[in-house]
From TrEMBL:
GO terms for molecular function: 3'-5' DNA helicase activity; ATP binding; DNA binding. GO terms for cellular component: cytosol; DNA helicase complex. Gene3D superfamilies: P-loop containing nucleotide triphosphate hydrolases (3.40.50.300). GO terms for biological process: recombinational repair. InterPro entries: DNA_helicase_UvrD/REP (IPR000212), P-loop_NTPase (IPR027417), UvrD-like_helicase_C (IPR027785). Keywords: ATP-binding, Helicase, Hydrolase, Nucleotide-binding. This is DNA 3'-5' helicase II. Residues 561-611 form the UvrD-like helicase C-terminal domain.
Amino acid sequence: MLDILGTPAEQTTVGQIIDSIMRKDLGIDGQYYRGFPILASSDGPISLDALLCSKQYGVAIIHTVEGRVLDEDFADHVDEVHLKLCSKLSELKELTRARSLAVPVISVTFAPSVPEHEYAEIAEDIGLCRTEDDLLAAIKSQTLPDASMYEPTLSRLQSLSSLKSRKKRTYVKKSDSRGAVLKKLESKLATLDVSQTRAVLERVDGVQRIRGLAGSGKTVVLARKVAHLHSQNPDWRIAITFNSRSLKEQFKYLIKQFYFDANGEFPDLESKVNIIHAWGAPRSTGLYYEACVRNNITYMDFNEARNASSYNEAFSYACQSFLNQASEIQPLYDLILVDEAQDFSTSFLKLCYEILPTPKRLVYAYDELQNLGDSSMPSTEEIWGLDELGKPVVEFTSKSQDLILDICYRTPGPILSAAHALGFGIYRKQMIQMFDYADLWGEIGYEVTDGKLSEGNSVTLKRSEHSSPTILTGYNSIEELIQLNKFSSDEEQAYWIAEQIAKNIAEDEILPSDIVVIHPNAMKMRNEVGLLRNILFSKGINSSIAGVTASPDEFFSDDSVTFTSIYRAKGNEASIVYIMNAEYCNTDYELSKKRNILFTAMTRTKAWLRVCGVGSYFDGLLEEYNRVIENDFSLHFTYPTEAEREKMRVVNRDMSSSERQRVNAAKRNAQNLAILLDGEVNVEDIPEELRAALLAKLRGSL
């Protein structure tokens, strides 16, 4: 099968002819790129007309000629591109044999309108082809000597070959340790799959949405997209923003790597590409702050916005205040990319849209279940509304505007299925939340193995092999990958985790920086990790709290175990993740938010996961997980109706502090009434109309 990817620099008749040829059943397996890759030259970037990389025939550079006449220096151009591409491929050791490039590369020129006897003297040099048969014969005139070269060739063409782990692991001595497993996995060259490549290369001529599971590569895709678009459009001002501060250094590293790999020089991160926080302040700029300064709108800091609204709504209030005050908004950027869009309000996305000139190039990426509030990602109509004619301001009319990354490379399939089961409360007596759009399960990599995926029907879902490659499960059993452990006290939990971490480092050949400990309650995290950190210190193991004892823009510290809340953990990953005090995610209120926290924490691991908890609330999570095991990591449930989903949203919603106080007071009053009715007060002493009202309210909520 041949995947057709990318968009040509300009649509031509000849380009369309080749596209139609490549869409036929040619018996070629590989990828066909249009307008990609971009090669660096002294005269500026060179965007290829087309390139074919196949498992059978190697690489074919395809030039297209629209008219009957070739440019005077056309042969020189073909030579330059050929030499530059061969040089690029030769830089990767896996593609060479005896100091020479082993991957066959051919240059062909498809020029159907050029007269038959013209340019005979250079026809062979430029690989001149006038017909479909000529073109296919030229492509198939060579053979890739070794099929194992295909993936490394793709990696080099995609400028991903430098994206290897920075941890060399030369210290690993045991062949069967966890460190040895990581060494094998990290030695493999990175490549983009078809969905990821499409997300990188699709043209942005308006709003574009990228949806993907945790671990599907959204951050890498956005960074590669920035590098690609910066190469294509060096004059554009590009901003990339995010919610987790620790993503800043990650984006900076990835964009620099990708751009340098493709262009041989570093990107302009000073004036053209801005890796920028969302809010910002005078001492640390952000998109909202820049918009206020540029448009002469009064900037609101967190305290001002919180006092005018609430803790959770502060940034949304500030952005909406900007939109309410601004009349003619001045554009700031040519392109804005938003990572972690699920954590931002509609008012922030509107602000991003408004500070862009037409055609409003805005790319936003999100994962529905990583939303740490209780609201799901709104539709484009809910975000941008309708115009004066009643039509949606933003509408996705083509697949290139709405892209889905359906393969999860980070988190092993069994862990991801368990995370979804616990995140939704699939095996809880009362489910906690569910997608409004049932088909989304299929889009994120699940397949129906039994029943029907529709409202009111019983269904069984399982992750497909395509969407969860068995990268790690080939080395470990499920029991080794994921464990849930209950403890009688916080002290017992702390000592057990410390012993396990010491064993990971001493016996499993794991580095301290491979390990992350997540506490789900951000308000209590700093105090409640103290005992565990002290125990580790007594064992000679260093640790740091992300954003507190280290730079706020960095997540990991060398030679140190990282402790974090979920808000810092988002967007990051680790080989071993310990979640402590997970019982918090099963306590009384705001269960949608708390289960989303648990899902996000569980999907930070790229290998091994240990979920730990204390007390009776953790028993509920254990019961749910045991049901996951019983169902062989499938999700079996009855799809809730719209009314049932709305009830879940109300019951499990986020609450303000005043709401929580009222609910707690009501609980205490109800408990007191129950105690009184148990002995001290007769039911008949309560007025009949009050009893009737209480019964009606209670029955209505059952």
